[in-house]
Amino acid sequence: MPLSRNNTAARNRAAARITGFHKTLLLAVGISLIWGSLQAAPPVKRARRPQFDKTVRDAFFPDALQKLSGPRPHSVPVVEQTVPLPGGAPVNATASTSGAPTTGNAKWSSWIDAEVLEDEIKAQQIKLAAAVQSPTKFKGGEYQQARVSLSALAVLFGIVGQYDGQVRWQRDAASLRDRLGRAGFNCKVGTDSTYKEAKARSEELTGLLRGDSLEPAKSDSAASETSLAWPKVADRSPLMKRLEQAEQQELSPGVANEADFNRAASRLLHEAEIVAALAEVITREGYEFADDDDYLAQARAMQTQARALRDAVQEKNYPQARQAAGELTKACAKCHEGYRS
Question: Does a structural domain hold residue 16?
């Protein structure tokens, strides 16, 4: 049956109303979603640009690059490699391709000569004997020098036990290292008991240097020399004191002028090698700051300049010796300022 004209018009009007409703509904949903997202997003807060007064602005260059000269530094690639400790024990070390020495990257003979080792042991024994002349002097302040000497001697015999060459007292090195080390740790204070122990170690060492045999003790360590834990041999503080003595009492005065340099050649050689060896010890694992890059850099700088000073003395080159001693002093000062304990 055909639709009437009125029915067709009614249906068209109904369809138009439905289509308009859908459009209105979609528009309302869209507006709702947009409004919700705007409400959910937190407002962006931006800090105001700081304002500095003239005193602060005058402390900096407007453009630092205009004041720099020379090529810009490039990063040095670092590789992991296994290198031997003095004595042959392998250890993982980080080596820079720049060629600078790294911890555990050289044998002890590259830092200190066997004759220097022996001479330093004798010299520290003389200082130790003087510090324990009487209980009164010892307790009055000489215990501090006794601690430095005992700690240095303990480290020296630790090096003797690991030394990659012929050096005296290697058979007794471990026992002496442990006995002297214990006395050094105990000498933080001056008491009757610490005096008695320091005096006994001094007399024992005097006898050994005279040719007497060392009586073994039950407390002597049986640990392998290659697995030596250096922080258990000596505290870092007295070793730093010995480094300070080398720089202030021997190296700086020895290069004050060329005449002093010529007179002090043998002492400069000796002290330069002591600095190089002790700078190696205080970077070993377990010591405070041994994992601090800046601390390690200062220790390596001391070693580098100590070697340069030794070479300059051997070549009788005063200008180079004076420059090396000056750079070594700077490294020592930075290390003591930032890492004194």
Answer: no
